[in-house]
Inverse folding.
């Protein structure tokens, strides 16, 4: 069982997603749950963040400055984040990762593999592909008439999952800034079980490469309030938890606060 404060946050956002993400109306209808969630957030680990003046720093800053309403920070009730282990192999260890390991085996069994994309020409080809797929997406909820993905070319951590024939199945592009990274683009490029399983294999490869770079936190771009039930389920399977991130200017000094450091406690997971 997760600690009580994690359970309180998870219950609040789970109910919010199940209700269709009604925003502030949800909190107003459930003030007691909101108070419990706010109290629980104060028990989360706090991470002071000083983004650099780089594309990666800009991506981190944009996530932490996001608003869910005028004057209301998107991170008011915590942020979804994956605590990246110092030792890459530790990510797949333990009972928590049982489902993750099974999904990875399933992906590899059908020949799915993940590789870096370092060639500028190949990156441009993949960018053209994802833009076209977003414009042509059969579900209008996910269709984007004018994709805005050119910023992906500003970042150097590109991974692509491919089937045995070499066809792209998933693209991952992750801005990195010191100990923080942002899940800027992580989407399948098709449909079916093999594409779904590719997400787990790609996540393992991404966490491995982030650990090798000394990254400690992987941030989701979406505020928790915007996450669907499906996204929350996937994040739970791959080990996302909650943490408090406080945006500070570079050069500012932080007071020493008890319990302000350390990894986020993971959410209860079927893995």
């Amino acid at each position: 069982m997760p600690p009580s404060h994690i359970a309180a946050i998870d219950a609040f956002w789970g109910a919010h997603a199940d209700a269709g993400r009604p925003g502030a109306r949800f909190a107003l209808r459930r003030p007691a749950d909101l108070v419990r969630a706010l109290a629980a957030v104060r028990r989360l680990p706090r991470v002071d963040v000083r983004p650099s003046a780089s594309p990666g720093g800009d991506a981190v800053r944009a996530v932490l400055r996001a608003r869910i309403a005028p004057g209301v920070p998107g991170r008011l009730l915590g942020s979804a984040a994956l605590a990246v282990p110092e030792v890459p192999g530790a990510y797949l260890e333990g009972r928590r990762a049982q489902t993750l390991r099974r999904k990875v085996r399933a992906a590899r069994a059908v020949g799915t593999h993940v590789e870096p994309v370092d060639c500028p020409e190949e990156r441009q080809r993949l960018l053209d592909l994802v833009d076209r797929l977003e414009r042509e997406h059969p579900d209008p909820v996910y269709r984007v008439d004018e994709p805005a993905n050119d910023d992906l070319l500003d970042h150097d951590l590109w991974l692509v999952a491919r089937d045995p024939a070499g066809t792209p199945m998933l693209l991952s592009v992750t801005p990195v800034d010191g100990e923080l990274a942002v899940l800027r683009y992580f989407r399948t490029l098709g449909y079916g079980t093999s594409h779904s399983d590719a997400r787990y294999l790609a996540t393992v490869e991404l966490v491995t490469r982030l650990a090798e770079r000394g990254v400690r936190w992987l941030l989701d771009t979406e505020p928790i309030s915007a996450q669907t039930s499906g996204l929350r389920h996937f994040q739970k399977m791959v080990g996302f938890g909650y943490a408090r991130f406080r945006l500070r200017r570079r050069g500012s000094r932080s007071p020493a606060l008890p319990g302000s450091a350390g990894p986020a406690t993971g959410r209860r997971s079927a893995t």
About this structure: Residues 193-212 form the longest helix (20 residues). Residues 254-271 have pLDDT under 50 and may be disordered. The helical segments are 4-18, 24-29, 31-41, 55-64, 98-109, 120-135, 193-212, 229-238.
